[in-house]
Amino acid sequence: MKAIGVNGSPRKKWNTATLLEKALEGAASEGAKTELFHLYDFNYKGCISCFACKIKNGKSYGKCAVKDELTPLLKKVNQADVIILGSPIYFGSVTGEMRSFMERLLFPLTTYTDPPGSLLSRKVRTAFIYTMNVTKEMMKEFGFDKHIVLNEMLIKRILGASETLCSYDTYQFDDYSKVYAPRFDPEKKAKVRAEVFPLDCEKAFKMGTRLVRELK
Ligand SMILES: Cc1cc2nc3c(=O)[nH]c(=O)nc-3n(C[C@H](O)[C@H](O)[C@H](O)COP(=O)(O)O)c2cc1C
């Protein structure tokens, strides 16, 4: 059993990466082989609308035909049993790199049928981890939850199953005293990091175990 984590944050040791690592640790504790990839290590573009993946009887039907640094990663993700995506919220949605990755992963598998279908015939389990500055209440107030619900719906339809884990009010800067950000209360941020983030890590670990168990 193979579990893959995909980090859509440019930071390899911060909130999103940490939660992905915990989820993969959970998957490993159930016997899965795990690997974490950082999208910002790869040079690639989003879908270029070539439609090679949609050509009837074409050699790339159902597969992304674009050849760049994402190609080997897409192959690995397409062969994985457990796929855990993670992204910070940037201006209300996932990062540009995660968005481009999702286009390349999901568009070849989706069918223009009515209702829309999926070419994926294997059983996989997926999850999406989001991290953000805002609190849960603010996320809803600002409408970020709409993107999250839409992603979950898309991934469920195309990959079969998906769960979502959100980590709110994350710690953003090494040293809050050095940045101009009067909106944030550094003490409150430190408290959330010390008291709430570890609970989110536990949730991520449990989610990793669950995703693997569901496939056993
Ligand atoms: C360019 C940029 C845009 C951001 N936009 C938002 C936003 O719209 N809402 C929010 O809650 N946090 C926003 N954030 C904060 C990040 O989502 C938050 O710090 C996240 O936990 C960072 O993840 P990381 O630590 O894994 O890099 C933004 C951060 C950056 C750098």
Main-sheet strand order equals 2-1-3-6-7
Percent range for β-strand residues: 15-25%
Q: Give the cofactors and ligands.
A: flavin mononucleotide
Q: How is the biggest beta sheet arranged? A: 5 strands, parallel
Rg, Å, rounded? 18 Å
Instruction: Summarize the amount of helix as a percent range.
Output: 25-40%
How many strands?
7
Termini distance?
Answer: 9 Å
Order of helices and strands: EHEHEHEEEHHEHH
**What is the molecular shape?**
globular
Which structural category fits the helices and strands?
Answer: alpha/beta
Mean pLDDT: 97
Low-confidence stretches: none
Number of helices: 7
List the helices and strands and how they pair.
Elements: E1 2-7, H1 15-29, E2 33-38, H2 70-79, E3 82-88, H3 96-106, E4 110-111, E5 117-118, E6 125-131, H4 136-142, H5 144-159, E7 163-167, H6 186-195, H7 197-213
Parallel strand pairs: 1-2, 1-3, 3-6, 6-7
Antiparallel strand pairs: 4-5
Helix pairs in contact: 1-7
For this entry, give a set of tags.
single chain, 216 residues, alpha/beta, 5-stranded parallel β-sheet, two-stranded antiparallel ribbon, 7 strands, 16% strand, binds flavin mononucleotide
Explain how this protein is built.
The structure is a single chain. The longest helix is centred in the last third of the chain and has 17 residues, at 197-213. α1 (15-29) packs parallel to α7 (197-213). The radius of gyration is 18 Å and the shape is globular. The mean pLDDT is 97. The protein has 216 residues and is an alpha/beta fold. A hairpin with a 5-residue loop joins β4 (110-111) and β5. Helices cover 40% and strands 16% of the residues. Residues 9, 11, 14-17, 88-92, 131-134, 170, 172 line the site of flavin mononucleotide (FMN).
